[in-house]
Amino acid sequence: MLSLAVFQTLVVALYASTTLSQLHDGGISVLTAMAWASGSGLLATGSLVLMFSPRLATCLLFLAAVLSALTYAQWRPAFVFTGLLVAVCAALVSAVSARSARI
Fold first, then answer.
1. Cβ partners under 8 Å of residue 57, min gap 6
2. Beta-carbon-side half-sphere exposure of residue 62 (alpha carbons within 13 Å)
3. What span, in angstroms and rounded, lies between the C-alpha atoms of 76 and 68?
């Protein structure tokens, strides 16, 4: 799962200039750009936290998935959809991991 978070971090780094130019041109709102950046940051943080606290990681990853879904509702390039899929998959894996850690 950490590889998915690294992949999404690379996607964020590659498309940061596109996001900033669309933000500057008025193609997206500041709130949408902040939701995209926050969701991507929570995805990376949740993936790292998963090694130490599966329950906290699950909460962070589900929050990242919600922010990604809200971003995708407003702005629909392919890299936002990729982030949404990665966040949902990571949240589901974390939830199963947290559940098996409690048993």
1. 46, 47, 49, 50, 94, 97, 98
2. 10
3. 11
